[in-house]
Amino acid sequence: MTLRAITIGLFAQLAVVVIVSYAELVTGRIMIGFLQLPPVVVALLFVLILVNKVVGRVKPSWILKPAEIAVAHCMMLIASMVASRGVMERLIATMVGVRYYENDANQWSTLFFPHIRPWAVPWRHTSDEAPVARYFYEGLPAGEPIPWAAWVLPLAGWMALYLIVFGAFLCLATILYRQWSHHEKLTFPLVALPLEMIQSRGGESFWRSKLMWTGVGVSVFVFGLNGLHEIWPVVPALKLQTPLNPFFVQRPWNACGYFVLFLSPAATGLFYLLPTDLLFSLWSLFLFSLMQQITLNAFGHPDPLSATTYETAGAYVLLVCYWVWAGRTHLRQVGLRALGRDGAQDQAELMPYRLAVIGLAVCLVAAVAWFRALGMSVGLAAFTLLVYVFVECLVMARSTTEGGLPMTEGSFRPNDLFVMWRPTETLGAGNLTALAFVDALFTRDLRGLVLTGFLDGQRLADGTGVRRRNLLAVFGLATVVALLSSAVVHLWLPYHRGAVQMYSYVYWGNNVQFFREYGTALVQGAKQPPAALTSFLVGGLLTWGLALARLHLFWWPLHPLGLALSRSWTCMVFWFPIFLAWAVKWPLARYGGMSMLRRARPFFLGLIFGEFCMAVFWTLVSMAFGTTAPLFPWP
């Protein structure tokens, strides 16, 4: 790790923040930053490697080593997640959305405003400070400056909370990494492409591979054609999205829920890197969950979707218990080291295990205290935080390090577990006000989860010769810079363009969803999901059975992670690319063996690389000329 690597990483972070913010908020068609392997990071990594090779020919002493490029990549990775769904796309809009969309019909001014802490938002409900929110959504009048001062205190407060939570993630990533990487031998599929691009010897063979460039050509053709179609409609386009729900309109088939067929070369390439048994489990158990909903609907179940959702919640909890049991030896060694006794050696880890354990505990306590200051009871705060960190985030991290899923999106929130026993409205207005913020900012949409970046960054460090201990400062600096720079951009864009003309999901979707939901619950009462506890237990038992079968039967084809993820947005979007990857890889493995799989691998890496670079290309074209960008199949 060198000063020039950090400097390059900082400038690259700023570029990432600007490109991600424009692509996702202004075009609203290219989700370029919230994937756990963000397209913008892959494209800028390519630019960095290309410039490095050119500079190396002119001045060999200036050429960057693979370790230095890896450091810049890690910094860009954090910046992309923070600038996208990981933080800013939820934080800024949530702070003002509740004020802008308040009206006499929803009664938010009486239900929620008295419980909103003044330091948590840039407006006051006791006075008419509508311009802060109104100008954010409708744009500034000519000559009016952005009200920066109103945002300083609330942003500082929320950023402090994010730093606390990210501190817990760093500690958790330290504790988990050796168990997952060295003991369980997880493959970290999302690191494969950056590692191939960066490594000196491996990188040369990667860049010279004809198969790789063939894969790039396929993606460039598809998205080049679709991009030209948006500019000149006479150019034909390739359809990459086919809704299947219109074919299932009659009962009981209409209970299948969101059912769409997406085509994505990049997703197919990513999933090619997974084992065939996991691929089979992901697509087959997704279809199994649809058939469950259809069957339950046929037998008169009042809410089939909630049944499968609670099944996956049970699967999450059981999986976490199983992983703790599987890693009990490592966790015991970590505990001994934390107590100052002989235990696992930690000189090579991100931080000493003692610091990681103590830091995790301190961060969790601090986060509970922060939630309490927001107006949440201590019990609810602790429950929400523990489910979020140790159930939701842990399963999402595993879904990338083992499952290779490019998006981290769950199927339930901590409050969904609470309402198995008590109705939502019994929490009271104060708790629900705080919970509406927490759900919108943390537990509802898990895409852009920084924890996976901390884990993947360590794997990249191992492959490029970076000491993991050096990454701690890199991650810390990258997080702070990303938070500050993305906050500025995410305020500047809406105040100058008007958020009502920007990406709807961010500005009048997720940010106010839970104020709507909890407001209705307070006024009318909320229905408890039918037989939720039963579905939860069924999901746990099914997962336990799958885990035991996988442990004791070498031929067992189903992976329990597939059941847990079966109702996730990720599987809803990517089930067909998963199926395609399986349909290609299974016969290759069966009839061609490992040598055939290895020979075909560059083609699929090229599919990823080409599609991601085209996403950045069309974003830059849109920024420069104001044209409409093509739709990319990662909604």
Protein model, in words:
The protein has 635 residues and is mainly α. It has one domain (3-625). 70% of the residues lie in helices and 1% in strands. It has 25 helices and 2 strands. It has helices at 3-27, 39-58, 66-83, 88-100, 108-111, 130-138, 148-183, 192-198, 200-207, 210-231, 265-272, 276-298, 304-326, 328-338, 353-374, 378-401, 414-418, 428-443, 450-464, 468-497, 504-508, 510-524, 532-552, 560-564, 569-625, and strands at 241-243, 260-262. It has a two-stranded antiparallel ribbon. Helix 7 packs across helix 19 and helix 14 crosses helix 15 (353-374). The longest helix has 57 residues, at 569-625. 52% of the residues are buried. The model has no long low-confidence stretch (mean pLDDT 94).
Low-confidence stretches: none
Q: Overall pLDDT, averaged? A: 94
Percent helix: 55-70%
SSE topology string: HHHHHHHHHHEEHHHHHHHHHHHHHHH
Count helical runs.
25
Radius of gyration: 24 Å
Give the overall silhouette.
globular
Class by SSE composition: mainly alpha
Spatial separation of the terminal alpha carbons? 36 Å
Quick structural summary:
The chain has 635 residues and is mostly helical. It has 25 helices and two strands.
